[in-house]
Specification:
Helices cover 38% and strands 26% of the residues. The chain is α/β, with parallel strands linked by helices.
Length: 744
């Protein structure tokens, strides 16, 4: 049976109130179009219902109390809510309201016609149940569009939500990429290139996606001056670049080492090696730039990270200094030999230590030809000429002749290298070295730290950083006789192992340990190439005695200098047990005079009469500016009247000190400079040098000035109280202090 719905007036209006049920609403709209009825749709009940002739509420649970007074024709439609329909039928039985209970999964035009017919009719029956159709929706109905344009408020909320999501959606991708890049940094720290490669491959797609998504919102961030996101993006990008180049550097470095050790290279191998060396140089430059950018972008709150980046940046910058001379060092198109001096700094001498062994490294056109190690007595036993030793060696060591083993008796490595070259030419006919390197026992220990534990099958020994010195002493002292090969074979086996395992070493740790040894003067270098040596000097790696001078633009400058030097002449290894601490008090008075009080404490922790320890027989030297006046020198409070004193570039004071086992010795030296501080602005410069091979020592600097003199600035952090400054540090390398003073 079909129903025909007739309209009463051309101006009838219908209001349909529904928050959902889009399909049903769309059906209503399409059916009503057939008739001359004005159709209105609202998601909620409007305030003026009386303006409408008919009002349909779909699934409406709450109605206004006066709805019956405002409207004559009200129809409540409940879709698949029979309980609610029954409930409303009972509650509103006293009102002119018709209630329709719709059941089914989908509805057609015919069902809407029934709803309209029932609503418009004058039938007194208030309740009607209409059953729709079950099962799968017909395709003809599925194609219908039930979209309705959202309200202004909803449109605003949707737009706002979209904009917020669009501006932050890059963050998860950026966070994930940051995590993988951070894991990559950790992989570098533990020398795991495979893990580094995996982390880079995992992190890159997320980072690329974050960059694309961020490009949409970047302008907004910049408008509001939010630069943090740009900085994070830059940090991630440069971190990825640095890690990628580090991976390339590690892989390329292994190939370079392999080619350098190959003595049967083809012309193609030489070309490959040259290309790899050039790539190595370029990667170092690029990594340095990347790390510098990352360090600038990271906030100061991440102090630990910035400190590590600063350390890495300084190391790479120092390597960059030497890169232009890499071809010279690797003897491109020529042959070069380098002298290696092994100094035992447990028997400390002014130039680093007793020379127990030496080696010769030969490079020939990008090829490592080998390193041959000799015992020092192999050379000294062949010296036919007599060479007068320094006076302290002759008097305090009872040595009438001078040999290579005692040649490190100057605090300047260049002098010692030249002297060692002289002895080797006289003793073994060796000459024409292109440079020399001195390594102390401490330096070898530092280098071993990068390799972990090594095994020497010929000696059936496991050697590491901690036991190297004791093992070396066993093979150099136990059962030693002139011509014995134990010591040189032991050192030779270690050197051979290190060379063969360079491709497996933790390169980062090795680089850090080498830098530490160079900075702390456990390794010193000289090359006969002036430009290369000039760079080494600028890095303070040459073991050179600095000639103190004021900057040319500082006319009122006071140049001070202090260099404390030990020489163990006790024929033992007491320096293994000896420690030192320094206190320097600088006192200025109203007349402009400067009074320096240097206090040094020597502590000997060795056991008495137990080798390698014993009494520390130390010929102690102090280098001071030539114009100062030595006032007093005391040992444990007792005035010392007999001491050596000569003036060359510096005033050199020398005295023999003996520190018994399990005792302390205090040396106090007072020296002055008259009317050094003038009226006006003065710059006080103090150069403090560390001895080659010496252990790091505590150093305390205390400066006091009168009320007429003010300290304006200094280049080191201090604790200030009134006119008194204190600075505590470790004498681990050469230091230069600047203090700006104003005297009234």
């Amino acid at each position: 049976m079909s129903f025909i719905t007739e309209t009463i007036s051309d101006k009838n209006t219908i209001l349909l109130v529904s928050e959902g049920n889009q399909e049903l609403v769309q059906l209503f709209r399409e059916v009503v179009k057939k008739y001359k009825i004005e159709f209105y749709l609202s998601p909620r009940i409007p305030p003026h219902l009386e303006k409408f002739d008919y009002c349909f509420f779909i699934n409406q649970k709450h109605l206004p109390k006066d709805v019956g007074k405002k409207m004559k024709k009200i129809c409540l439609v409940y879709v698949n809510s029979p309980d609610e329909a029954d409930k409303k039928s009972k509650q509103l039985s006293h009102m002119p309201v018709k209630i329709i209970n719709l059941k089914g999964q989908y509805f057609s035009d015919e069902h809407i016609e029934k709803i309209l017919w029932f609503s418009f009719s004058d039938a007194k029956e208030p309740f009607l149940t209409i059953i729709g159709k079950a099962g799968r929706k017909p395709k003809s109905l599925s194609r219908r569009s039930y979209f309705t344009f959202p309200t202004k408020k909803r449109f605003f909320l949707y737009t706002l939500f979209f904009l917020i999501v669009a501006h932050i959606i890059f963050i998860p991708f950026l966070a994930i990429s940051s995590y993988f890049f951070y894991k990559g940094v950790q992989s570098v720290s533990v020398h795991n290139p495979e893990e580094l490669k995996i982390n880079l491959e995992l992190g890159l797609p997320f980072f690329n996606m974050s960059k694309k998504l961020y490009s949409f919102s970047r302008t907004t961030y910049l408008i509001f001056s939010i630069s943090l996101t740009d900085d994070i993006m830059a940090v991630n990008e440069k971190t990825y670049d640095a890690l990628s180049r580090t991976l390339s550097l590690q892989q390329n470095g292994k190939q370079i080492i392999s080619l350098l050790l190959d003595k049967n290279k083809s012309s193609q191998d030489y070309n490959s090696l040259e290309l790899r060396v050039n790539k190595f140089k370029n990667d170092i430059h690029e990594i340095t730039s990347d790390i510098s950018t990352v360090n600038q972008k990271i906030p100061h709150a991440f102090k630990s990270t910035k400190d590590k980046l600063n350390t890495a940046s300084r190391l790479l910058s120092q390597i960059k200094e030497l890169l232009p001379h890499l071809d010279y060092l690797l003897a491109k198109n020529t042959s070069r030999s380098y002298l290696i001096l092994f100094a035992n700094n447990m028997e400390l001498r002014p130039g680093g230590g007793f020379i127990g062994s030496f080696g010769v490294v030969t490079m020939n056109n990008y090829t490592f030809e080998g390193m041959k190690i000799y015992d020092v007595y192999d050379a000294d036993g062949q010296l036919a000429a007599h060479v007068d030793p320094p006076v302290p060696l002759r008097i305090h060591l009872g040595q009438p002749n001078w040999f290579l083993r005692d040649s490190a008796f100057s605090p300047d490595f260049l002098e010692n290298y030249q002297l060692a070259s002289f002895f080797l030419e006289k003793e073994m006919g060796m000459k024409d070295f292109s440079g020399g390197i001195l390594l102390t026992t401490t330096a070898i220990q530092n280098i071993l730290g990068a390799f972990g534990e090594i095994y020497l099958p010929d000696f059936k020994e496991k050697v590491n950083k901690n036991n190297f010195y004791l093992k070396a002493q066993i093979y150099s002292e136990s059962g030693f006789f002139p011509g014995s090969t134990q010591k040189k074979n032991f050192l030779g086996d270690i050197a051979q192992y290190l060379l063969l395992n360079l491709d497996n070493v933790n390169t980062q740790t090795l680089a850090i340990e080498l830098k530490k040894s160079l900075d702390e003067k456990q390794i010193v270098i000289f090359f006969d190439n002036e430009k290369l040596q000039d760079r080494v000097n600028r890095l303070y790696w040459s073991g050179k005695v600095i000639q103190a001078s004021c900057p040319a633009n500082e006319p009122m400058c006071i140049s001070d200098y202090l260099f404390s030097v030990d020489a163990n002449l006790g024929v033992n290894k007491a320096n293994f047990f000896v420690s030192r601490s320094y206190n320097l008090d600088i006192e200025l008075d109203d007349e402009g005079n400067i009074r320096n009080i240097l206090s040094i404490q020597f502590k000997n922790d060795s056991q008495e009469n137990v080798f390698p320890g014993g009494t520390y027989k130390n010929y102690y030297q102090l280098f001071l500016p030539p114009e100062v006046t030595l006032e007093t020198m005391t040992k444990d409070g007792t005035l010392i009247e007999n001491y050596d004193n000569k003036v060359n570039i510096y005033q050199e004071i020398g005295i023999l000190l003996e520190v018994k086992p399990k005792t302390l010795t205090n040396l106090k030296i007072v020296y002055t400079r008259k009317k050094a501080v003038k009226k006006g602005t003065n710059v006080y410069q103090l150069i403090l040098q560390k001895q080659i091979g010496s252990s790091n020592s505590d150093f305390s600097l205390r400066i006091s000035v009168p009320s007429s003199t003010k300290i304006v600035s200094q280049n080191f952090p201090v604790l200030v109280k009134d006119n008194f400054m204190i600075y505590n540090t470790s004498l681990s390398q050469d230091k230069i202090f600047f203090i700006e003073l104003v005297k009234e």
